[in-house]
Amino acid sequence: MLNVVFADYASDIGNDNKENAHYSRQWAVYIEGGKEVADKIASKHDFINLGNIFEDYYHFEHKRLQKRSLIPHTEFHKNLTNEAEVKWAQQQIVKKRSKRDLITIKSKTKFGGLKFNDVEWPQMWYLNRGQGLDMNVLGAWQEGISGNGVVVTILDDGLEKNHPDLVANYDPEASYDVNSHDKDPMPRYDQVDSNRHGTRCAGEVAAVANNSLCSIGVAFGASVGGVRMLDGDVTDAVEARSLSLNPQHIDIYSASWGPDDDGKTVDGPGELATRAFIEGVTKGRQGKGSIFVWASGNGGRENDNCNCDGYTNAIWTLSISSATENGLVPWYSEACSSTLATTYSSGSISEKQIVTTDLRHKCTNGHTGTSASAPLAAGICALALEANKDLTWRDMQHIVVRTARPANLKSSDWKVNGVGRNVSHAFGYGLMDATAMVKLARTWKTVPEQQRCEVSAPHVDKMIPPRSKVILDLNVTTCPGVNFLEHVQAKISLSSPRRGDLQIYLTSPSGTKSTLLAKRPHDSSRSPFTAWPFMSVHTWGEMPFGVWQLEIHNEGRYLGRANLQEWSLLFYGTTRIPFEIPYQRTSQPSSSKYKSSLSRTNTFYLNSKINKTGAHGSSHYFNRKNYKNIKNKSSTTFRTDKSSSIGNGENVKILPTISYRNLKTTKKYWNLNGHKNNNSTKGFSKTILTPLSTHSLPLTIVLEPGGESYSRQRVPDVFQKYPKIQQLFPLYVNTIPKTKAMQLCKKQKGKIDLILLCLERAQKEK
């Protein structure tokens, strides 16, 4: 399994590095026989063994060679590969990697020295504003959650381990200097403090609280370490060693860097770094998986797209974008379909920035960019991990998706996906909510095992003339093991005389449209996309079955014909529906251009309560504009997806239902044995049954809210009639519903006007 996935990702990722490449004097070498054999081979050929990358993979350096060269050292490479114990060797190419902070705008308040203490807390607006305008950290702290027992490592340019606001939480076991090959992560000092980045990121995560110094970390009880790996030549081996440092001790790796955000680079992890990711999520944290948090990128001004960054669009990373203090899209932010969620960061010159630790034992309120967003997300993840140490890396992503809040984030591209969640290319699923994540983590049940299937398209060698587009359909009728989606990748081989003229869109069977690649005016490269995995999280929770549409635009001129060689879809997800919780829909996301009929003025909120953040505490809503049409249409776009997990023989709360006439809510209870409880409402004549899920019922049908913003029916036809449901579930082909509850559901299906409730089985038949 690992080898298959590894091959998918390692295929030509980072091909931009091959242009004008600089070869280092370092090699990655796979040697069988252990360290003694590796040391012997290194000494024989005048190499130094710098240490392990992984088991049996070693990092060699040749001191007599120049630090960089424009040509590979084939003679030295041949000497290594001629050794019988050497199974693989690769001379390392120097990669361009950029820190994702910005030019610091001087604050109105001057900071310096050690005169700062937690009186700066009022300036940490992103943690303590209230009214739903922060990341709701106080609630988690009030529950006694501070990240205690969780280890976070910052992969960056070093860490000032003796900083007074960090030293108490510093963890040497989570630290290393890959650039200088020692255990001391202290940064290199210069006149302009060019290596302050890692120390700033560390303070956001774990600056000590109540010590009369500087700031407070989101997870001020967590341990923090640093890996110095950006202050020197960055190679595949350097990245791999950093990503795989002490994975049984470190819980979370935070990275605020990546390929150049210049709008013209396509690059990602090499073979070794890819393996480090895979081994991290499969073996790290005693098999629960290392958690990798990544800054989405600062190339907004250059019209960059983070789907051209193989780190942020990897399924193993939790990609984090930024929002300004006013809930706007920052000028530097990149919009793409791989972004999972958002935290606050800097914005315009008049907007506040992030307070954190700085070099030379100082403090700053000028940390910026998505560089500042990723560590805040890592700190929030640390809070959730303290609440539940058994969370896997995929559990964490599920929890982020389910708790992120779109409210108060302003963007014109908010949409509702096929399972009723708001999602945006600018903000992902919304602003991370620390308290909600902690509460959900406490009761979370591990998601089913990840499954994967690939469906190849028959369309090959498709020419796309200039100023034209092509739309290709791929009908997915079977996807072994994957019934509920997490990540979706479109693996595309596509060439063009000018790569930046290409635009790519993917539409799911439920109608969710993801922008996989937007036009990049600065990208004039002729280098193709070769099996490049464009990724989307916008279809999270949907089913893969039905017709997917790949739409490719070629905005080139004259003879600029593009050529699609091949493409396929990779689906990652689960056979059974993951742990179900009542889905708490927040208030409508803010947007001056958002004209959906689900705006607050057009919506009845049924039996809802306003919580402290201003969000509605109930997910039940009714569209005023479409109310007249709903009475007479069974394929309405009304939905309510609140559900609860149940076990066999338990009393099932089938959640608030709606009467057509007076819009009052009623509560109906049903026992899996088919008997109504005394407090239930008799009959089904004027009520709607909302979807219900159990651990043994892997099927949930949810319909989408309607409105002018939707151009097509968002519910697959297969959900319109119960008998067709079986066609989607080969695992349940022989399943015949026999319980009284199921029989009753089938009898009443003609009377249910607003939603079709279908259950595979109420419980397993022996």
From TrEMBL:
- A Pfam family cross-referenced in the UniProt record is P_proprotein
InterPro entries referenced in this protein's UniProt entry, alphabetically:
Galactose-bd-like_sf (IPR008979), Kexin/furin (IPR034182), P_dom (IPR002884), Peptidase_S8/S53_dom (IPR000209), Peptidase_S8/S53_dom_sf (IPR036852), Peptidase_S8_Asp-AS (IPR023827), Peptidase_S8_His-AS (IPR022398), Peptidase_S8_Ser-AS (IPR023828)
EC annotation from Swiss-Prot or TrEMBL: 3.4.21.75
Instruction: Give yes or no: UniProt keyword Protease.
Output: yes
Q: Where does the UniProt entry say this protein principally localizes?
A: Golgi
**Enzyme class (EC, first level):** hydrolase
GO cellular component annotations, sorted alphabetically?
Golgi membrane; plasma membrane; trans-Golgi network
Q: Where found, per UniProt?
A: Golgi apparatus membrane
Q: Which cofactor does it need?
A: Ca(2+)
Q: Which reaction does it catalyse?
A: Release of mature proteins from their proproteins by cleavage of -Arg-Xaa-Yaa-Arg-|-Zaa- bonds, where Xaa can be any amino acid and Yaa is Arg or Lys. Releases albumin, complement component C3 and von Willebrand factor from their respective precursors
What Gene3D superfamilies would the database entry show?
Answer: Galactose-binding domain-like (2.60.120.260), Peptidase S8, pro-domain (3.30.70.850), Peptidase S8/S53 domain (3.40.50.200)
Give the residues annotated as active site.
Answer: D156, H197, S371
> Which UniProt keywords are listed?
Cleavage on pair of basic residues, Disulfide bond, Glycoprotein, Golgi apparatus, Hydrolase, Membrane, Protease, Serine protease, Signal, Zymogen
Q: Where is the P/Homo B domain?
A: 446-577
Give GO BP annotations, semicolon-separated: glutamate receptor clustering; peptide hormone processing; postsynaptic membrane organization; presynaptic membrane organization; synaptic target recognition
Q: How is the protein disposed in the membrane?
A: Multi-pass membrane protein
Query: Which molecular function GO terms apply here?
Result: serine-type endopeptidase activity
Q: What does this protein do?
A: Furin is likely to represent the ubiquitous endoprotease activity within constitutive secretory pathways and capable of cleavage at the RX(K/R)R consensus motif.
Q: Which family does it belong to?
A: Belongs to the peptidase S8 family. Furin subfamily.
* Protein name, UniProt field: furin
